[in-house]
């Protein structure tokens, strides 16, 4: 059976997806087929009109297909189905990118010396050279040896938190450095506009996701692609949050569509009697001291437009010089990035043992096939039941994100600063606090240290119970721990942002409320208290 290690041609992928689409159409009546096609035509025409003729090559091809589909809506069902399958074929060719062993070996070999070039080069050959060593800056945590063993007999679905557009290459390198197999993952079409990025991402396992296409036909094709890939034993990576966290908070509400494809692929594998059909989900929590797009993300979160916008097309990541500046300054900080692989779980959210067997709350083995099979062992497909299972899985992932979160100094100091501003201005809402005058948003150094002392005591207790992870500096002999945390955070904030989140001015700390809110939000779910304040 072909998998990521034996990639199949795009034409074969397209045939598989057309087959899945035809199976779906066979369950539709005539009115449903018409509505399915008409919705795609309407939404794609609207999208293309909004682009005002500024089309990429794939948009020109899409326009021609949509116009043919529009004609088909006025004809017989047979013509409508043919138009639908033509669209599916086009989407399959857009989505699928063939994994390349050769490129994967080359990229992982040069990546330690060329990450900044990977992000900013104009041409693939510009990638040679550089001096960045991710291994010395990134901490990869978790039971990696267990994941390596389980990957031999199970298909792994990696489910990370989503912080930045840097997440995918950083996770990719972390997995390579840890000896894990490659993962395929969906990457936004906007990330393929950089020729060097496109060249490597398309051969490192990235497949294309165009989030501008919001109609059911495209979404079904994307899900069918995921089901087919997992069924071929392609280890896969999904960002369950769907997009980068605008507010800086750890995701608490997950998009379950792609997660649901894992349980569908598992059942298909069981029903077909495929070898090694079992699928496990691995939570992965990312913690970065600084985030390239922090200023734009929090602005978007605070704005009314941010409530509906799904793609930021003009943030810091789109400016090569800004990316290069961030990479050269921040990615060279010691221990500034943490990638923590959590304990794997089954597709219902149950923990598993070292052999991949599901466990109940008492630690007893469960035959997880019983969740989807009848008394005779025959797999029973039930979409409503599977949605409930995926809800349980999503809840388990959120719990894992909280347990596996790695607290760093910039997060902790920002959380303390925002809590102090909240206590000082209890009648103001979030939008009013971020607009405080410079004098109103200053915090006395001693007040900050007192707040940090309270927070550190609570964090130590939680870390001892395994409820959270800490990566805070060790104080020098003349320092308290709170001093060490504050000094490191101030140093890191000074590395990149034009207006640092916090900056020392004599006995005062000047805050930039929006950045303090963004970085502090990483602990917003924690309920940590800073004590009393005047």
Features:
20 helices; 3 domains; 10% strand; globular; seven-stranded mixed beta sheet; single chain; alpha/beta; three-stranded antiparallel beta sheet; 534 residues
Quick structural gist:
With 534 residues, the chain is an alpha/beta fold.
Question: Would you give an account of this structure?
Answer:
By secondary structure, this protein is α/β, with parallel strands linked by helices. The chain folds into three domains: 86 residues, no CATH class; 173 residues, no CATH class; 117 residues, no CATH class. 47% of the residues lie in helices and 10% in strands. It has 20 helices and 14 strands. The strands form four sheets. The chain has a seven-stranded mixed beta sheet, sandwiched between helices. Strands 11-14-13 form a three-stranded antiparallel beta sheet. Strands 8-9 form a two-stranded antiparallel ribbon. The radius of gyration is 25 Å and the shape is globular. The termini are far apart. About 4% of the residues have low confidence.
Average residue-wise pLDDT: 85
Strand neighbour order, sheet with most strands = 1-7-6-2-5-3-4
> Helix tally?
20
Question: How widely separated are the two ends?
Answer: 68 Å
Rounded to an integer in angstroms, the radius of gyration calculated over CA atoms is 25 Å
Number of strands: 14
SSE class = alpha/beta
Low-confidence residue ranges: 112-131
Write down the overall geometry.
globular
Helix share bin: 40-55%
- How many discrete domains? 3
Largest sheet: 7 strands, mixed
Strand fraction: 5-15%
